[in-house]
Amino acid sequence: MAANTSRPPDYRPPPGPPPPPSLQQQPSSNIKYASPPPREVKPNQFPKLNNVVTVEHCHYYLSLMEQFLLYKEKFDPFHLKILLARAERRYIQWRHIIQSSFSRSGYKPFVPPLDVAYLWHAHMLSPFRYFEDAIRLNQTSIFKMNLPLRQLYQNATSYLDPTVMNTWALYYGNDEPYMLTPENVVVGTTTVDCSFCSSSMQCSWIEYADWRHDPFMGIHCHTCRSSTTVGTTSVVRLNEDIESRSFLIAGTLLEKNGNIKQPGRFQIQRTMAHVMKIAEEKLLPEFRLLVPQRSMDQIIGFIQDMADPNKNTFYGKGSSMQKTQDWHRTATPLLVNALRGCYQNNPSPFSLDLIQAVGRQQDFNIKAVIKIDWQSPFGIVRGIRQYNEFLKMIMMYPSQVMVPTLEIDLAWHTHMLHPAAYRIFTFKYTGQYVNHDDNIVPERLKQFADGTDKVWRETNGHNLINKNVRELNEKIHNGNDKKSKRGSTFFGKIRKTFNPGLSSVDYNPGTLMDATDKFVVESTRILSRRTKSS
């Protein structure tokens, strides 16, 4: 029986009743993602991974990014700086409220405002840091929560539910607005604890924002006459994590595969304890190592000198400390990286600077929302399917850093916004808790991207970008209809045998033909007509 090479029908939104009234109250028509997400014409038409990476959720995520871009446009640089600093404080408070409210029988979850939701989202996009912070801060219940993408979309495309405002006022009071605007973002005051005497220092939001963004600016304490900076605050925070949280140093609690370290695997913590002991014995008696009078650079310098046998004057001949010197030297670079990456000039309780994390997402947001024509649902569908293949590559090449395309990244981000499901799923199918690093320098990123395209081509038989298009163009112009042998190597067959992919329960590719595949079918028809005519 001859194969049917007729062109498949184009995707058309299914007929049906109009959207509910709440979704008819749309913003201005120039907003791309205010409309409802695409709907399936028939069941299982769209792909679905882990029941959370769906066309619908990806559409809502695009809407969230668009909302935040439009929201930021309302603020000039001066007020935007205040917005981000205030949003970070509101997010910290929101986490405390949510965690402490889980045990209350009358508690009802509420959708956070856009500024809080966006910082929450930026936190989730660093899976290692997000999971570790939940452990360190004893906020594991929050880790089980998903970002409420649908509710955030509804808040933006319809009238805000009054119950949300009432719940916000219940926890935050009437003086803290639910939605920050350029007019109210400067209104009110906040407090900063003195790094030296712990007094609470009141300041305006303008002063706080300047302090939060400038590592050289200090807030003067009228009690002890000292000046507190984000640097001194970060040293105090490190000391609290060591003394109050039993050496739960940020950036040191997880193995490379994302597992929580087991007892006996905390060499970094033991190295920090060892350094502090040396400091107490060798430094002036009235000082300890972790005091705000010392900068983080000075603390790190002391740690590095301790591990450098050429500079280390703390080990004498016959010293009992000499036995552990080698493994201290091995652990020291890891400790230094944790202090620089998770603490330095970061006054928040989190293991990453969320304001910087938001800034790193700006480029992706602009490309995903403004520059890319997703041809929805086709671009999203392709991204979900390629994300499935992307995870397979991570499983097969666990030590290689994989760089996604923007389409894959949309699906990947959407998955990470469901943190508990993401952790379980990636462990199950890749053998590791897949981390997401958006802070790679451009030179290294280019190398990793080239490596990703190479293994993608070896595994799937085509380039990661422009799948099949280049080969089919060559066939059409050259009249060559020979089947490509890429991906049919011995090792390619072995990989397919032992890595057959996800079960239908965890991944459903859907039946909708990809836009690229539609080009393939049409090109095949052209090629077939040329062959017959010749």
TrEMBL record:
Pfam families: GRDP-like. PANTHER family: ENOLASE (DUF1399), GLYCINE-RICH DOMAIN-CONTAINING PROTEIN 1. Residues 11-22 have a biased composition (Pro residues). Residues 1-45 are annotated as: Disordered. It comes from the Eukaryota. This is Uncharacterized protein.
